Structures are given as structure tokens and as C-alpha cells.
């Protein structure tokens, strides 16, 4: 029979034990194999009406509503090994006509035979239907390691929850940080990525602007030195952006619209200003 354990956490310095939303069910192979066989038979339309792996997991989930259920299958490698030995012994008996002596007790208990492919098929099917992961472990020590890993991950989850959340809402989704050296190496790439946060401002245009003004300070200085402050946005208007190479090379200018948006981005002191 399977054993079910829900994970609990004790608050440091307190006697209070908090039950976590995680449940681990450990299923020995003799109970697991019939579930797999029934699942495979049902998929092929030859089911006998016995409980499938999916139905077993759904039953666990109904018994533990609101909790995430995981399943650990204990002793599958030994089961496959016993299958091979049993097949060899059976073949030898058929050839010699004599029943082998000294057979281990475990070999007579292989009432349900399932292949690795059938196990994989059933596990994947059950996971797709229930969202529950099945972990294959060989012994009790691996079960303990699995419980340890799950418990540690669950306890650390609140601390890691916001680790990968962007500090700034305008940062490009999926963007990664740039390593900057003490000698300034990497800062130019940061500047280009900063420019690319503007809509419709691609890598080629950012590179062209950064080539003309290699830092935010250089661009701000150009704005400050422009004769007419109201038209300072024009300093980037005529920067040529080149794409391709050779006969396929094309060029365009940054243009008024993007230049105005860049100017607003760099000079606005209103935190609620929307850069359109």
C-alpha cells in the first residue's frame, strides 16, 4: 500500500508547527505496476475497469484539497532487474524442462509486468491530466533525499519568490543583467539596452545613438549645449541608422518622433510622465 505524508514546517524559536501545502505519496512497485497497466490498457481501449494511475492521483488530490500532490515510486529499478532474471529463469526452465532451484522469493511476486515505455507513457499521461509529478526512486534513502529536497524548496520559496521580479516596470521582459568592470567595460552595452527600453527603438538604432553619444552624460551635455533648449531633441534626429552590409545595406534616420521620446526619457523630471 502507498504511504502519504504532508510536509510541515516549524517556525524557528517557536513550538508552532505549520502544515505546508505539499503532499508526497510513496507507492511501492507492486501497487504501482497494476495502475500503470490499467492506464495503458485504458488508453488503448482495452481497459478492464480497474483503477488507473490517473484515477489514483485524482483520488489523492480529492483527499487533500488545496494541496500539491507528488508521487514517489519506490523500487522500480529493482523491479526491472527482477523482471530480467525472471525471464531468464523461465527461458532456462523451458529449455531444460526442470524448474530452477533456489529462486528468490521476490521473483514469484512479479504478478504484473510492465515495460519502461509503458511506465513512461502512463506517467506522462497522468501528469498531463492531473499536473502531478511522479518521481522514480530506488530505495528508502532516495525517498528521504526527495523529502529533504522538497521540504527545503518549500521553505525557501517565500525568500525566492521575488528574486527574479523586475525592480523596474520598464525593464525588458526576460532581459538579463550586464556585468560591468571597474574600468568601465560593459557600460556601453548597458547604455544601449537602456535606449532599447523605448518602443520601436531596436538594437541598430541604439548602437547608432550610442556611437554618437557613448554615455547618457554625453547626450545630456549635447542637450544642454543646444542653442534652443525647446528644440534640444533635434540632436539625435539626423543620426543615421544603418542595417545590413554591402549591396544590401540600408540606412534611415532616427527621426523626429523617436528623438522627442528619447529627449523626454532623458530630461523629464515628472515620475508620472508617460513616454508615448
Automatic annotation (TrEMBL):
UniProt entry keywords in alphabetical sequence: DNA damage, DNA recombination, DNA repair, Endonuclease, Hydrolase, Magnesium, Meiosis, Metal-binding, Nuclease, Nucleus
InterPro entries (UniProt xref): EME1/EME2_C, Mms4/EME1/EME2
Region (Disordered) location: 87-107
Domain of life: Eukaryota
UniProt GO BP: DNA recombination; DNA repair; meiotic cell cycle
Cofactor(s) recorded in Swiss-Prot or TrEMBL: Mg(2+)
Subcellular localization(s) per the UniProt record: Nucleus
GO molecular function, one term: hydrolase activity
Assigned GO CC terms: nucleus
Family label: Belongs to the EME1/MMS4 family.
Matching PANTHER family: CROSSOVER JUNCTION ENDONUCLEASE MMS4 (PTHR21077:SF5), EME1 PROTEIN (PTHR21077)
Descriptive protein name: ERCC4 domain-containing protein
Species of provenance: Batillaria attramentaria
